[in-house]
Inverse folding.
């Protein structure tokens, strides 16, 4: 089947069987490898994308259900090397180590701060409770997001 | 593969009748795991997450496609509490009440609430119309329900007199993204206390002996609370698996029930 | 498909320079192993044993090879060279040799035109097994003599006796590194019988040695290239996809890629050794250790991997950073049908730290001493002999420093939080404030730096100075820890050049940099960069004077400086474990504060404070990142991370049930660094990657004990252990 | 320059093997695919794979890079019919026969035959091994047309092997004749050698 959707501001088309995950189609059909394939069970958040305004795991979205959807991936958050403020904050605080979880954190952060520019710490923690990071212990990430919230106030 | 994106119930029911092998897809949080693991290759799928009727939510009737993210903000207290413990924000944005009911996992977080409310599952088919299945007839075993092949789960329905005083708790060894070791809903209505538990039997269960004992007592002393805990621990039928042990689950069931009775009493 | 190259960022040592690969990682453009792609490549997939121990009765690949789109299906008969691989012992068949010895052991590999066909072909292979009784009890394996290595350490007088005796048995379960990036490799045939292999690895040269042997090729026919790594923690020190993907590429003549899914990843890399440790500590009335007797068995699983070295670490660090004149250790690592064990952050020092620190707490309690006081009285310091090997501690070891500084750090207010999400059970709302008990616990941990026991441990670096700036050529692997940043800072500090590029080298263009493990790369490759940069600087000064411009220096072309850097030599110990097996030591302290719901056995780790011996802080932000990340892994091991086995089969090979701490579980961390320069390495820096994982776990368990009074002799601590049901 | 085509003979019904020998597992794929890959790796200008019996299953599993497929519906007929079918599928001046059951015919042997054609364009050629003669055979377009008129079994052998006109050139290969795989015992031996 053919699925059309709005991806990072562009109209895109994918020819698919239909049951594939959005993640698979992004990575294998559309060469957008920024969304990561760490667990494919919705248990790590590395494949987070914004789908019609919701932050979801793209591994759990069936591509056949994406007709007409609006999707933002990590590639659509900044503009290549020109970082979005959430990306810059993570970089400055040392919130990147191996970086495999990073795209998921970037997308979740973009979603959070778009909806709530000044989240408190409890809100931040809960918003990122679906994003596993194995390297940083989250301290640098929390400092990055708390700093962003402070900058907004 | 045949994909029907049903925007209304009639379309969904037609598709269900015409494609008996097609799978129903709501949030995808269960089905896609099976697909990703190569355990499953659907030949047809009926998507219902944007089905108008199924997205409706009003007092006493929760459309099957209502997401946990929406339910987190609802007025049914225990339902909101449990919704907040389901998976992660990403899962709650996609996962639905109807999906939880359809999967019928013993650890399904929404199920003890339905049991505590004495709720029913509303299902519909093109040929036979709508029927209401009481929760204890709908959930028949581990991941087994009485849904017929041509039916679609349309809603979870709770009676008008469902208790407003209701409390939820769930034990897991992680503070997010965790499958329940034991979950419990206690509600207090005109007929007294109701105690429902999840992850301690093949289906959600009510601790009826504990309820009877509790509701027969004029006042709830510490002794009565201890007896509630003891009876609940005895009444559940948990197993030992890689998530916990039978004995811990029995113990925790009693503790949770006792604590939630206290919380309801204080409410 | 290029390996990650590095943008240039400013910064010298001591500054918290941001990492040069950060922008690519944040924008989704960084290429990890699983992102590798060549048009026209084939997809590989692996058939695995469903049993931990079974005889392969029948293997018929006909249905797979005759499937449309399948290019090759290979079994053990197709291994072109040596049939077995392994870093130390070559005991693991490349593909099942007729008997599967662990769950998930690879049996056959497929290359097909697409992923779906490859998976379908794996499913189509006809395979019949005769299940055999698996050996899953390490004590039984030891009794049967199935030992990869047995060690005996005898020091001092076995008849010495103390007035206080503490005896207990401890157990640690299987922790998995669970790196988020899956195992992945892309093999590209070169058309001349050889190939280029791009593979997730911590040490491409040790991979290369094993790969060429099994492929039956000359060393220069295979080039192993580093790729982007999504975390490692030890999981990538051994072979996974390497030989399989290379065999498929050679056989088909096409590029082939294999990427493991999460379940395969759990099956496909080594674990932290589970251990059983029987301890007897004897101390005098002042709490000074008189004698320590230890008997331990570690489960190495089905194949040897690095079990020999892990056991040595466990045995030599049995007593921890403490003095004791009389020590007897009997330690074995055994062969079972459990998942193969190998390297994981801490490498043997983790398991014993849980045991010796629990023992120290019990001694303190018996003597009425504060936990930090008994540690202070026994502290191992420079000039002291190691309790086990007798090796005199050289260089810095601020054991007293990490105790005193930790003690001076303020404890949080003793107030149980209001926010239910910060209580045990979190948003599960299990626990009212009134049911919470707070506990505080302490632990110290000791670790060796770099490889030990006489291993010829080195790192090669080539610096190339061009008119554009400096290039650092090395095969050292950046796994996320920040090695690249540190090396650029070192070179910049010595040469005063801003423009420095990191050029990842393959195995054909430079010698080994050694493994990115054992807390060694900051000192080893950092040391190599340091030495090369100093030589280059001196050379330039001699020829061109101090103020020559880059254009002037490179007017006749680039200037190169190659070095092979070694740490001070170590020795194999004698048959009683005596000698000088180690190149140096690093020490750390942790203090954990936990809130516990004793009735439900639920724990929330409120905070973990730490003092880390760093030698010299080259990049404070990167160090804090290692400390916080290591503590999160230690916290996971303390209360949730465990692979559960049944008859050797992993029951939870997925992120649904192998639980890693989330942001709601990870403790707040306050870090303090002690800078007392090491006796070798760049600017006196020490490797600190492993320390935070070693003593954070026992500190947390000590805090839970303090809150509950339960013995808790096993990690992870489960709710039922706290409740006692 | 003249062109040479290889014709992989894969139409047979494998009576003595009892199962399609084209599909026997060999070197991680099928016997036929190994032979095709060898042919494709040689200097042949074209490679044609002629299928017949079990064509459906064989064509599902066949791996071709530059080879083309041709079908011989008359596969019960002698091999010569398949050669003719293959020859019709390509435009070439000479044809090299490659039975799918003789995986031991190497790229080097094929290239030696091609070299002979390039050297003196014989009417036909046959390979002389240490211990006998056999495939690959080479037929010029003229020889092929002539052979197509001969009836009966074993046409190639009778036509080339027994030729006494001196028109058949001999290409000497200093090695043992590669065995053809006709029976389960042959197959076992092949796997044993591998």
């Amino acid at each position: 089947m053919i699925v059309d959707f709005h991806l990072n501001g562009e109209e895109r088309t994918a020819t698919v069987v239909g049951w594939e995950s959005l993640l698979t189609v992004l990575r294998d059909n559309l060469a957008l490898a920024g969304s990561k394939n760490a667990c494919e069970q919705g248990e790590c958040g590395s494949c987070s994308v914004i789908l019609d305004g919701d932050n979801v795991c793209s591994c759990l979205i069936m591509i056949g259900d994406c007709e007409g959807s609006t999707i933002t991936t990590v590639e659509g958050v900044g503009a290549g090397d020109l970082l979005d403020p959430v990306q810059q904050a993570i970089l400055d605080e040392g919130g990147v180590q191996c970086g495999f979880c990073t795209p998921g954190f970037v997308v979740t952060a973009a979603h959070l701060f778009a909806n709530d520019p000044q989240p408190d710490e409890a809100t931040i923690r809960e918003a990122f409770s679906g994003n596993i990071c194995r390297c940083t212990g989250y301290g640098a990430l929390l400092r990055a997001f708390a700093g962003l919230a402070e900058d907004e106030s | 593969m045949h994909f029907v994106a049903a925007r209304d119930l009639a379309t969904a029911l037609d598709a269900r009748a015409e494609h008996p092998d097609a799978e129903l897809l709501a949030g995808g949080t269960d089905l896609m795991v099976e697909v990703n693991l190569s355990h499953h290759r659907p030949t047809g799928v009926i998507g219902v997450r944007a089905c108008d009727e199924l997205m409706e939510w009003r007092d006493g009737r929760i459309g099957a496609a209502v997401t946990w993210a929406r339910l987190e903000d609802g007025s049914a207290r225990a339902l909101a509490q449990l919704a907040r413990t389901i998976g992660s924000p990403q899962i709650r944005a996609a996962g639905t009440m109807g999906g939880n009911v359809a999967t019928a996992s013993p650890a399904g977080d929404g199920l003890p609430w339905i049991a505590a409310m004495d709720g029913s599952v509303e299902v519909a088919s093109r040929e036979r119309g709508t029927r209401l299945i009481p929760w204890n007839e709908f959930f028949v075993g581990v991941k087994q329900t009485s849904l017929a092949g041509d039916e679609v789960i349309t809603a979870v329905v709770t009676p008008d007199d469902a208790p407003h005083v209701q409390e939820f708790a769930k034990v897991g060894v992680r503070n997010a993204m965790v499958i329940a070791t034991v979950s419990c809903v206690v509600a207090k209505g005109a007929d007294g206390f109701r105690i429902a538990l999840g992850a301690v039997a093949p289906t959600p269960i009510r601790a009826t002996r504990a309820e009877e004992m509790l509701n027969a007592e004029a006042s709830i002393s510490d002794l009565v609370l201890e007896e509630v805990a003891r009876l609940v621990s005895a009444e559940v039928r948990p197993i030992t698996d890689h998530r916990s042990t039978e004995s811990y689950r029995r113990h925790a069931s009693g503790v949770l029930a006792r604590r939630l009775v206290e919380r309801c009493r204080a409410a | 498909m290029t390996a990650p190259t590095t943008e240039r960022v400013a910064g010298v040592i001591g500054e918290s320079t941001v990492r040069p690969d950060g922008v690519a990682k944040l924008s989704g453009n960084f290429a990890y192993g699983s992102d590798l792609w060549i048009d026209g490549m084939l997809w590989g997939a692996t058939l695995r044993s469903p049993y931990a121990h079974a005889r392969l009765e029948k293997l018929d690949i006909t249905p797979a090879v005759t499937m449309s789109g399948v290019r090759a299906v290979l079994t053990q008969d197709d291994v072109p060279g040596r049939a077995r691989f392994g870093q130390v012992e070559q005991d693991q068949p490349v593909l099942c040799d007729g008997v599967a010895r662990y769950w998930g052991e690879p049996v056959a590999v497929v290359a097909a035109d697409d992923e779906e066909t490859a998976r379908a072909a794996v499913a189509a292979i006809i395979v019949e097994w005769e299940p055999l009784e698996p050996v899953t009890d390490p004590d039984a394996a030891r009794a049967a003599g199935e030992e990869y290595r047995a060690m005996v350490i005898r020091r001092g007088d076995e008849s010495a006796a103390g007035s206080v005796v503490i005896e207990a048995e401890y157990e640690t379960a299987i922790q998995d590194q669970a790196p988020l990036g899956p195992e992945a490799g892309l093999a590209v045939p070169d058309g001349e019988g050889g190939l280029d292999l791009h593979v997730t690895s911590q040490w491409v040269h040790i991979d290369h040695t094993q790969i060429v042997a099994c492929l039956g090729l000359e060393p220069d026919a295979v080039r192993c290239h580093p790729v982007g790594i999504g975390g490692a923690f030890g999981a990538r020190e051994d072979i996974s996809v390497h030989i399989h993907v290379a065999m498929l590429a050679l056989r088909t003549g096409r590029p082939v890629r294999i990427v493991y899914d999460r379940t395969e990843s759990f099956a496909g890399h080594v674990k932290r050794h589970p251990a059983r440790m029987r301890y007897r500590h004897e101390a005098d009335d002042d709490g000074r250790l008189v004698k320590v007797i230890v008997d331990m068995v570690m489960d190495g699983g089905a194949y040897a991997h690095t079990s020999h070295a892990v056991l040595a670490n466990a045995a030599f660090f049995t007593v921890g950073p403490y003095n004791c004149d009389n020590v007897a250790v009997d330690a074995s690592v055994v062969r079972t049908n459990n998942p193969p064990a190998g390297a994981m952050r801490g490498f043997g020092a983790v398991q014993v730290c849980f045991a010796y620190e629990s023992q120290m707490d019990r001694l303190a309690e018996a003597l009425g001493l504060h936990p930090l006081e008994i540690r202070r009285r026994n502290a191992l310091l420079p000039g002291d002999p190691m309790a086990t090997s007798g090796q005199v501690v050289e260089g810095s070891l601020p054991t007293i420093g990490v105790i005193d500084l930790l003690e001076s750090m303020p404890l949080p207010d003793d107030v149980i939080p209001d926010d239910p999400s910060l209580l045990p059970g979190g948003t599960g709302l299990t626990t009212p404030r009134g049911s919470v008990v707070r506990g505080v616990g302490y632990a110290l941990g000791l670790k060796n730096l770099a490889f030990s026991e006489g291993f010829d441990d080195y790192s090669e670096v080539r610096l190339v100075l061009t008119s554009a700036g400096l290039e650092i050529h090395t095969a050292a692997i950046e796994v996320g820890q920040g090695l690249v940043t540190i090396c650029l800072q070192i070179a910049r500090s010595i040469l005063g050049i801003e423009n420095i590029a990191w050029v990842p080298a393959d195995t054909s263009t430079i010698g080994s940099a050694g493994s990115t493990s054992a807390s060694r790369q900051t000192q080893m490759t950092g040391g190599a960069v340091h030495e090369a940069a100093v030589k280059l600087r001196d050379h330039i000064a001699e020829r061109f004077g101090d103020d020559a411009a880059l254009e002037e220096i490179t007017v006749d072309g680039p200037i190169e400086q190659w070095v092979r850097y070694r740490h001070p030599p170590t020795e194999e110990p004698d048959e009683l474990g005596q000698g000088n097996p180690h190149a140096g030591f690093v020490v750390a302290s942790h203090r954990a504060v936990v809130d516990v719901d004793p009735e439900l056995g639920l724990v929330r780790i409120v905070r973990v404070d730490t003092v880390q011996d760093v030698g010299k802080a080259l990049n404070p932000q990167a160090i804090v990142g290692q400390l916080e990340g290591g503590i999160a892994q230690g916290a996971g091991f303390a209360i949730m991370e465990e692979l559960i086995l049944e008859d050797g089969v992993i029951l939870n090979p997925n992120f649904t049930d192998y639980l890693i701490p989330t942001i709601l579980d990870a403790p707040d961390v306050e870090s303090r660094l002690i800078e007392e320069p090491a006796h070798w390495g760049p600017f006196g820096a020490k490797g600190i990657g492993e320390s935070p994982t070693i003593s954070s776990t026992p500190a947390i368990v000590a805090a839970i004990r303090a809150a509950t009074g339960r013995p808790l002799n096993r990690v992870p601590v489960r709710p039922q252990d706290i409740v006692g049901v | 320059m003249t062109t040479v085509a290889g014709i992989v003979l894969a139409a047979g019904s494998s009576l003595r093997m009892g199962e399609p020998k084209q599909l026997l597992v060999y070197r991680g794929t099928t016997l036929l695919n190994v032979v095709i890959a060898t042919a494709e790796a040689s200097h042949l200008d074209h490679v044609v794979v002629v299928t017949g019996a079990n064509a459906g299953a064989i064509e599902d599993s066949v791996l071709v890079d530059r080879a083309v497929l041709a079908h011989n519906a008359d596969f019960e007929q002698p091999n010569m019919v398949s050669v003719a079918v293959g020859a019709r599928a390509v435009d070439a001046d000479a044809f090299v026969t490659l039975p799918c059951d003789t995986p031991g015919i190497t790229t080097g042997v094929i290239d030696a035959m091609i070299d002979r054609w390039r050297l003196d364009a014989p009417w036909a050629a046959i390979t002389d091994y240490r211990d006998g003669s056999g495939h690959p055979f080479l037929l010029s377009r003229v020889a092929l047309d002539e052979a197509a008129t001969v009836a009966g079994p074993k046409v190639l052998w009778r036509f080339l092997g027994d030729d006494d006109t001196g028109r058949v050139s001999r290409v000497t290969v200093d090695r043992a004749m590669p065995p053809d795989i006709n029976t389960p015992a042959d197959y076992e031996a092949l796997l044993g050698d591998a």
User: Anything to note?
Assistant: DSSP finds 17 helices and 28 strands in chain C. Residues 521-544 of chain C form the longest helix (24 residues). The radius of gyration of chain C is 26 Å. The CA atoms of residues 446 and 587 of chain C lie 5 Å apart.
